[in-house]
C-alpha cells in the first residue's frame, strides 16, 4: 500500500517539475534564432496552477491505482492538462508578440514539448487500462478534436508553428500528397516484385540472400548510387533521354525505397506460406478439397495476419524513407525538412517532420489493429 | 566437405566495393562535366570519420540497449515487458533523417546531432533484440542452473549469455547496419562522413564523387556485417565439430 502511494507521489511530481523547471516558450526576434526562454510562471499566468494540478493528478492516479475508474479519471486529467497547457501557451504567445515587430516569433520550447509528450503517453496508457473497446482511438480523436477546436477558435495563431504553417499551407498540402504517392508507389512496386519472386520456387535461397543484402546498404548510398548509375547510363546513351528517363526525380526515389521494402514483404510472405501446417493440409485433402479451395479457404485466411504484418512494417518504412526522396529531387515532406535544415529554421523542420511522424504512427496503429483483429478472427 | 566460414560473402563483397570506390575505378563513370573523383587520402579521411562516429554511436547503443534489455528480462520487471514491443514499434516510426533534422536546431551542425539520432534510433531495436535473444533461452536450462545452486549472476554469466550469444550477435548486426546508415544521413547535418560526397555530389552534379561515397559507405556496412558474422560463427560452440 505504501509502495503504491510512493509510486503515485513520485509520478505526480514528474510533470509539474518538467513544466515548472524547463522553459515553455522561446521569444525570438525572427524565425531563425532561438530567442529568450519564458518560464511557466510568466507563460501561463492564471492558467498555471490548474494546468499543473491536473498534470500532477493524471500520472499520480495512474501510478497509485490499478483500477479502471482511476485510469478513466487519470485520462480526463491528462486531457484537461493538455488542453489548458495549449490554450494558455497560445494566449501567452498572442500577448508576447503583440506590439512587437512583424518577424517576432513565439516558439514552443523544451518544457512544452516534453510536457505535451508525457501527457499524451500517459493518456495512451490510461486509455489502454480502462479496457473500454475503442478507448485508444477515442482518446486520439479527442486530442485531435481539442487541437482542432483551439485552432478553429484562433487560440493557437500566435505560435510560431502556426505562423510558419500559414506561410506554407499550399506547399505543405502538395508535399503531403507527393509523400504519399512516393510511399504508395514504392509499396506497390515492391509488392508486385515480391509476388513475382514468390513464383520462382527454385530461387528462394538466392532471393532471401539478395533481399537481406540490400538492407545492409545505407539508404543515402543506395539513392546516390542509383542517381550516379542512371546519369552514367544517360551520358553513355543519350538516346534514352528521349524516352523520359532522367537521373533525378521520383523514378530513382521509388526504386530505391522499394528495394528496402522487399525484405519485410518477403518475410511476411514466407511466414504466410508456412502458416498452414502439414496437419491442416492433410485434413483438407482428406476432405476432398481441391487445390484452389485449400488456397482460398485455408491457406489465405491462416496466412493473412503474416502478410499484413509484413505490409505494416513495409508501409511504415516506406513513409520514413520517402523523406529521403527530396534528396534526389522527388519532392515530398523531405523538401520542407531539408529546406529547414539549410535555413536552420526549426519551425520549418518541424512542419515537415511532424506530418511524417503522424502519418507513420497512424499507419502503424491502424495496420497493427487490423493484424490483431485478423489473428483473433482466424486463430491458428 | 568443409563449410564456408560465415561472413566470408559480405567481407568479400565489402572489399570489392571498397576497391571500386578507388578514384581510378570511379573515374570510368561520369567522365564528363563536373565529375571530379575524390583522392584516396580524402576518401580515407572521410571513412575514418565515419567509422569513429558510427563506432561511438554503436558503443552507446550497445551499452544502453543491451543493458536495459538485461534489466528488462529480470523477473522483477515482468509487468513492463509488454510495453517494450509497442514502444519499439512506435520509435521506428520516426525515421532517422527526421531525428537528425530535429536535433539540428538544438545541437548545431556536425557530429552531435548525428550521434543523438544514432542513439535515439538504435536503442529500441537493440533493446527488443536483446530481450528476444534472452527469452529464447529455454526454461529447462535456467531451472537446471537454479537447481545446481547457481546465483542469479552466475546463471546470467554462465547460462543465459552464452546461450543467447547468437541472438545477441544478430541484434548487434542490426545495430551496426543502422549505425553506418544513420552516420551517412548525418552528412545532411554537416557531419563529415562518407555521406558527404553523396550529398555534395547530388547538389553539384559530381557523379564520380557520388559513386565513390555510395560504394565506400556500402563497403563499410558490408565489412562490418561480415566481421560480426565471422565473430558470431567463431562464438558458436559447435563450430569446431561442424568444421571437421
From TrEMBL, chain A:
Q: Where are the transmembrane segments?
A: 45-64, 71-91, 111-127, 139-159, 179-200, 212-237, 243-263, 318-338, 344-367
Q: Which Gene3D superfamilies match?
A: MetI-like
* Cellular localization per UniProt: Cell membrane
Query: What is the membrane topology here?
Result: Multi-pass membrane protein
* Keyword annotations: Membrane, Transmembrane, Transmembrane helix, Transport
Please classify the protein's predominant subcellular localization into one broad category: membrane
Residue ranges of domain ABC transmembrane type-1 in the record: 176-367
Q: One Pfam family from the UniProt entry?
A: BPD_transp_1
**What InterPro entries does its record include?**
ABC_transp_perm/SBD, MetI-like, MetI-like_sf
Q: State the superkingdom.
A: Bacteria
The family line of this record is: Belongs to the binding-protein-dependent transport system permease family.
Q: What is this protein called?
A: ABC transporter permease subunit
Automatic annotation (TrEMBL), chain B:
A Pfam family it matches:
BPD_transp_1
Signal peptide positions are 1-26
- By its UniProt entry, which InterPro entries does this protein fall under? ABC_transp_perm/SBD, MetI-like, MetI-like_sf
Q: Which keywords does UniProt give here?
A: Membrane, Signal, Transmembrane, Transmembrane helix, Transport
According to the record, the segments passing through the membrane are 50-72, 84-107, 176-202, 214-235
Mainly resides where?
A: membrane
> What Gene3D superfamilies does the annotation carry?
MetI-like (1.10.3720.10)
Q: What is this protein called?
A: ABC transporter permease subunit
The species this protein belongs to is Methylorubrum rhodesianum
Taxonomy-wise, where does this protein's organism fall, top ranks first? Bacteria, Pseudomonadati, Pseudomonadota, Alphaproteobacteria, Hyphomicrobiales
